[in-house]
UniProtKB/TrEMBL annotation:
Organism the protein comes from: Knoellia locipacati
Gene3D superfamilies per record: 3.40.50.2300
Residue list for modification 4-aspartylphosphate: D85
Protein known as: Response regulatory domain-containing protein
Residues annotated as domain Response regulatory: 30-149
Highest taxon of source: Bacteria
Example GO biological process: phosphorelay signal transduction system
Keywords: Phosphoprotein
Alphabetical list of InterPro entries matching this protein: CheY-like_superfamily (IPR011006), Sig_transdc_resp-reg_receiver (IPR001789)
Length: 156
């Protein structure tokens, strides 16, 4: 089960790109979000907002409730940042992250949501690019998504 959300001001630049606005480059990115818990998905979207940083604008979200939907969406391409809930039931985001990093060429940067701060070693094992622990701090979530978006755009 998936749900797509476009930002209200999303136009033809729905994939990674940058545009000049008053001298500052704005990176427009798309984010794939996986959690079996709708409240976690809502918390991540609310924390990141439309603009997690001055230079990063999220133009498209895709919410996935199953690991199969995540792999299908990543196979289709077009995602700049992936957020995986490590506490998801059946297929946790940590194991899914490791699988994606090992199987998908040029896998987008992945942010994993861990159950507690002490689970940072699990995030490292999963090959995640960044991790934020529950309870979710909106500032840390926004900073992590913006940082990963900048990394992805710079790599292109």
């Amino acid at each position: 089960m998936t749900s797509a959300h476009a930002a209200p001001h999303a136009d033809s630049l729905a994939t990674a790109g940058s545009t000049s606005s008053a001298g500052a480059a704005v990176h427009r990115v798309s984010v794939l979000l996986y959690s079996d818990d709708i409240t976690t998905r809502d918390a991540v979207r609310a924390a990141a907002g439309r603009r997690p940083a001055r230079d990063v604008e999220v133009t498209r979200w895709l919410e996935c409730a199953t690991a199969f939907a995540v792999t299908e969406a990543l196979d289709a391409g077009g995602w700049d940042v992936v957020v995986l809930d490590g506490e998801a039931a059946k297929n946790g985001g940590l194991g899914l992250c490791r699988e994606l990093k090992n199987e998908i060429y040029d896998c987008p940067p992945v942010l994993v949501l861990t159950g507690r701060p002490q689970d940072g070693w699990l995030a490292a094992w999963s090959l995640a690019d960044d991790a934020v622990s529950h309870p979710l701090d909106p500032i840390k979530v926004a900073e992590a998504i913006a940082g990963l978006a900048r990394t992805r755009v710079a790599a292109r």
